[in-house]
């Protein structure tokens, strides 16, 4: 099963890093986060990757042109500069073919059990499975009685509800839900898939974190440096 990674966005909320390189090439522990993501899949036996490139895609192409030593096959594909997530997926139709494929974003890591996720998708007659995760908590919770604080506690990650954590499993039929380059996959296509009963959620209770801001970069780097990186399963 191929793994498609969306790696072409501008990363505008991380301008401190993305002015000179695409977001997936921002390093954690001296290794691009893109490689961290690929190593998660590789550790579970998934070794063929299709990278949907856009902004500063030549940086990623150059890296994998020089990179050696990993037992994986990488296909960097230019999917255009001003193309939304759905459009990038649709532009990879020839690479996807008629087979079920994995899809995730080039900025999020997790300790997802990938084979279990794939088995979950295979057990349902739906075109798409999204991994549902709890976002990392950033704020403490106050329980108030008027202006008196009755209780204060660090907010549990489990209190935050479920969000789209990437790590999709998709059948080629999802391409029929994408109209063109301007389509944002997370909007109309996923809404229609849900309305049609074609979208399942695989609940992941473990670690997940995206690298959306400089604060996220610092957090991931600190976890890596401390030897406490839950996503490092290789």
Question: Can I get a quick summary?
Answer:
With 234 residues, the protein is α/β, with parallel strands linked by helices. It has helices spanning 15-18, 33-43, 57-66, 85-91, 93-96, 114-122, 188-195, 214-225; strands spanning 3-7, 27-28, 31-32, 48-53, 73-78, 101-105, 108-110, 128-133, 140-145, 148-154, 163-164, 168-170, 199-203, 208-210. β2 (27-28) and β3 (31-32) form a beta hairpin.
Can you put this structure into words, describing what you see?
The protein is an alpha/beta fold. 28% of the residues lie in helices and 26% in strands. Strands 1, 4, 5, 6, 8, 11, 12 and 13 form an eight-stranded mixed sheet that branches.
How does the overall form come out from the CA principal axes? Answer: globular
Largest sheet: 8 strands, mixed
Let me know the average pLDDT.
91
Q: Which class best fits the helix and strand makeup? A: alpha/beta
Residues in β-strands, percent: 25-35%
Backbone CA Rg: 18 Å
Low-confidence stretches: none
Number of strands: 14
The percentage helix is: 25-40%
Number of helices: 8
How far the N terminus sits from the C terminus, by CA atoms, comes to 19 Å
SSE pattern, N- to C-terminal: EHEEHEHEHHEEHEEEEEHEEH
């Amino acid at each position: 099963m191929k793994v498609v990674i969306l790696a072409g966005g501008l990363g505008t909320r991380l301008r401190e890093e993305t002015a000179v390189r695409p977001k997936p090439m921002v390093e954690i522990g001296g290794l691009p986060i893109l490689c961290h993501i690929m190593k998660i899949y590789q550790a579970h036996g998934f070794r063929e990757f299709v990278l949907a490139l856009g902004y500063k895609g030549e940086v990623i192409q150059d890296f994998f042109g020089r990179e050696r030593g990993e037992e994986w096959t990488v296909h960097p594909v230019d999917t255009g500069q001003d193309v939304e997530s759905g459009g990038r997926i649709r532009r990879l139709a020839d690479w996807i073919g008629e087979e079920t494929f994995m899809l995730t974003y080039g900025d999020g890591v997790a300790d997802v059990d990938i084979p279990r996720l794939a088995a979950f998708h295979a057990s349902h007659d739906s075109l798409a499975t999204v991994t549902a995760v709890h976002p990392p908590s950033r704020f403490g919770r106050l329980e108030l009685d008027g202006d008196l604080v009755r209780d204060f506690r660090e907010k549990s990650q489990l209190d935050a509800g479920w969000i789209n954590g990437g790590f999709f499993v998709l059948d080629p039929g999802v391409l029929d839900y994408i109209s063109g380059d301007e389509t944002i996959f997370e909007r109309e296509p996923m809404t229609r898939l849900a309305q049609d009963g074609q979208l399942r959620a695989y609940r992941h209770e473990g670690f997940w974190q995206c690298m959306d801001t400089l604060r996220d970069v610092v957090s991931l780097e600190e976890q890596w440096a401390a030897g406490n990186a839950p996503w490092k399963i290789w």
